[in-house]
Design brief:
With 296 residues, the chain is an alpha/beta fold. The strands form two sheets. A six-stranded parallel β-sheet has the order 3-2-1-4-5-6, sandwiched between helices. Helix 9 packs across helix 11, helix 9 packs across helix 13 and helix 9 packs across helix 14. The termini are far apart. Keywords: NAD, Oxidoreductase.
Length: 296
């Protein structure tokens, strides 16, 4: 019998499935719930247990982890008679790893406290590849003791794990992360179009750029996407559009100017409006190509 905490995992999408599987590999008893039956089949094939509802998944869990797209989904699975707060046991630790607004995280922590449930917000960065390889960056918000309790779980999911402050702090840092990533992808996309139109060997150029000051994790992870025009979603434009809305709104609330970020937010929104919302965020290249005269 394992002495590890029993985990309920809600949300088995592009990120949630490999993350939950890494916990199973680390020896955790994972019971999962999602709305997609094939994802439940994948979980059971990996050694987890499929639940028929949120209530069933969380009832006996010591730790509940959520990974869903946005604030409305977090609210839908946590509140109400069928939600986590009404069905998890008192004393459980709820770790929300979704990327949502900081205020949603603060409100959730307050509501959970009344139920005797502790909360951490712990969004991640690293994309699908980072989730599969268990090398995610995890930025947490909440209490020190709760963070320390969660650290062994985080160790099975990521490499860089930091408590950034009180509730909502993890989400604030994730918003900043998404700002940096979007601006970086946009800069890489512009460089790709510039290089190609100049007749340079693109693969060679990206290799040497990535070895100097222009190098980045973004370029390392997305280089093949650019070279092959492969925009299979690791992180969808739709989700990055949501995140750019979070960071621009949060920055406005604290009086921080985002002059470049605001432009990139509009470019992400434009790409989404042109029907590319389901593509990987490296598809920002398509927007630059259109602006440069390409017919896509």
């Amino acid at each position: 019998m394992s002495n590890l905490p029993k985990i309920a995992w809600i949300g088995l999408g592009i990120m949630g499935s490999p993350m939950s599987e890494n916990l199973i590999k680390a020896g955790y008893d994972v019971t999962g719930f999602t709305l997609e039956p094939d994802k439940l089949d994948r979980l059971t094939a990996a050694g987890g247990t499929a639940a028929g509802s949120i209530a069933e998944a969380v009832r006996d869990a010591d730790v509940v982890i959520t990974m869903v797209p946005a604030s409305p989904q977090v609210e839908a699975i946590t509140y109400g008679p069928d939600g986590i707060l009404e069905n998890a046991r008192s004393g459980a630790l709820l770790i929300d790893m979704s990327s949502i607004t900081p205020q949603t995280s603060v409100d959730l922590a307050t509501a959970a406290r009344d139920k005797g449930i502790r909360v951490l917000d712990a969004p991640v960065s690293g994309g699908e590849a980072g989730a599969i390889e268990a090398v995610l960056s995890i930025m947490a918000g909440g209490g020190q003791s709760d963070f320390e309790e969660a650290e062994p779980i985080f160790d099975a999911l990521g490499r860089t794990i930091v408590l950034c402050g009180p509730h909502g702090s993890g989400q604030t840092v994730k918003a900043a992360n998404q700002l940096i990533v979007a601006v970086n992808i946009q800069a890489c996309a512009e460089a790709v179009v510039f290089l190609e139109k100049s007749g340079v060997d693109l693969a060679a150029a990206l290799d040497v750029l990535n070895g100097g000051l222009a190098g980045s994790t973004v370029l390392t992870r997305k280089k093949d996407n650019f070279l092959n025009r492969d925009f299979k979603p690791g992180f969808r434009i739709d989700l990055h559009h949501k995140d750019m809305g979070i960071v621009t709104d949060a920055a406005r609330n604290v009086g921080a100017a985002l002059p470049v970020g605001a432009v990139v937010a509009q470019l992400v929104a434009s790409l989404r409006a042109q029907g590319d919302g389901g593509l990987d965020h490296s598809a920002l290249l398509r927007s630059v190509e259109r602006l440069s005269g390409a017919q896509l």
